[in-house]
């Protein structure tokens, strides 16, 4: 068995003359929680559709669960789970009715046992007779995840699954993802715009306008980016003026406010040194770059 749940090589997708995914190669290890990151329109969804066998690539090759993405699409779809950003189950049905419907679609012979397992695992037992429309965002999210897990998929594809969910529910959801990956060996590929969620992944791929900018471990992206960051303790009343000044003089430098402090970042140490010399009273101190600074820096 291949160590990679997903292994794509030179994958390209064109729509007319528009290149949406450009010569993309990446490998996703089995049992990993893999973050697939990029801005809207970067090519993430198109790539996932090709991996799942829902869209034919213009060129390139790929395997998902040791199956060819072009020739074995039906079998691939039977062995994966997909959770969309928008709640896609039936609002008028109860929790248990939704799960039973999904289970019958997959023709699961031990459906009652599987439903009981998911209700218990995701703590949905007290909500099983509640209509989906009456659930909060966090509980709808758990119901969606339960429906994806019913048929014991080997890979879960999650498309921005925590959008619009409160921080506590987001944390609990990510705890479940890691439990699933560790205890069941399920491979999880998740798209997200939250930088704190990117840090929770074991590995990452970051694409922009269809091009792969980085793939590797979560800890490796900061040194790879070569982003350098400084923080200043100047008074809040001065921060707006300083931000405007730096933006006017040094448009390639990223500025941000975090914890009432002004941060600047760039890959160009010479420009940053010039800022430090120009504003000696600003008391800039070098710090580790944040994930947000890294991701902005990689596309600037």
From TrEMBL:
Name this polypeptide is given: ABC transporter ATP-binding protein
Domain of life: Bacteria
Keywords attached to this entry: ATP-binding, Cell membrane, Membrane, Nucleotide-binding
Source species of the chain: Fluviibacter phosphoraccumulans
Pfam families, A to Z: ABC_tran
ABC transporter domain span: 6-234
Sample GO molecular function, one term: ATP hydrolysis activity
